[in-house]
Amino acid sequence: QVQLVQSGAEVKKPGASVKVSCKASGYTFTSYGISWVRQAPGQGLEWMGWISAYNGNTNYAQKLQGRVTMTTDTSTSTAYMELRSLRSDDTAVYYCARDSGVVVAGGLIDYWGQGTLVTVSS
Amino acid sequence: AIRMTQSPSSFSASTGDRVTITCRASQGISSYLAWYQQKPGKAPKLLIYAASTLQSGVPSRFSGSGSGTDFTLTISCLQSEDFATYYCQQYYSYPPAFGQGTKLEIK
């Protein structure tokens, strides 16, 4: 069965960086993309960006351009999302999700990781 | 960017009720629409894709319809486990966008 298992909760200070991992299993990793979606406390879902596990192409949400980097390690079927220059409004649960977009962003998101809470506080 | 607007934002219903949630896109998205269910503290779960196709394992009391700009999610006979927040999402064009969510509460 498809599983996406994310790394554990993080607490960071403003200005720091965080890197969240997402290990995939149960499917051919390079046949899909990975989207990252975040959810601030009590708020809705915000799409952050996408990476192709096939060729490493990325597309990021405009508001996060310059602060976010998404990568994959195909040898371990793991995706990573790094967010830099953290602010208090980056406090959220961060989800990775399997995306049917293989070479272009914007495919169907079907399976989700369990989420990683990132708290930004001084 | 395409904007997705759901209505209502929240409402109360009773088990056994038939409920409908509406999602409107700011421009045509053909049938590239998905519906997700999210329970507190859990990740979203895909219910419906391509506007009307039920994801494997999802009960048949869930159904979706629509194309272009107007879409609906219908739950034919509410069960206790259906009280949750529901999101629509377009995947027609980049960037993908979610509706603001509809919270379904027990009356």
What does this structure look like?
The complex is a heterodimer of chains A (122) and B (107). Chain A is built from no helices and 11 strands. Chain A is an all-beta fold. In chain A, strand 7 and strand 8 form a beta hairpin. The termini of chain A are far apart. Chain B is an all-beta fold and 107 residues long. Helices cover 0% and strands 50% of the residues of chain B. Chain B is globular, with a radius of gyration of 13 Å.
Short description:
The complex is a heterodimer of chains A (122) and B (107). With 122 residues, chain A is mainly beta.
Radius of gyration of chain B, CA atoms, in whole angstroms: 13 Å
Shape call of chain B: globular
Spans where pLDDT lies below 50 across 5 or more residues of chain B: none
**Strand content bin of chain A:** over 45%
Q: What key attributes describe this structure?
A:
heterodimer; A: mainly beta; 7-stranded mixed β-sheet; B: 107 residues; mainly beta; 11 strands
Give the SSE map.
The complex is a heterodimer of chains A (122) and B (107).
Chain A: E1 3-6, E2 10-12, E3 18-25, E4 33-39, E5 46-52, E6 58-60, E7 68-73, E8 78-83, E9 92-99, E10 109-112, E11 116-120
Parallel strand pairs in A: 2-11
Antiparallel strand pairs in A: 1-3, 3-8, 4-5, 4-9, 5-6, 7-8, 9-10, 9-11
Chain B: E1 4-7, E2 10-13, E3 19-25, E4 33-38, E5 45-49, E6 53-54, E7 62-67, E8 70-75, E9 85-90, E10 97-98, E11 102-106
Parallel strand pairs in B: 2-11
Antiparallel strand pairs in B: 1-3, 3-8, 4-5, 4-9, 5-6, 7-8, 9-10, 9-11
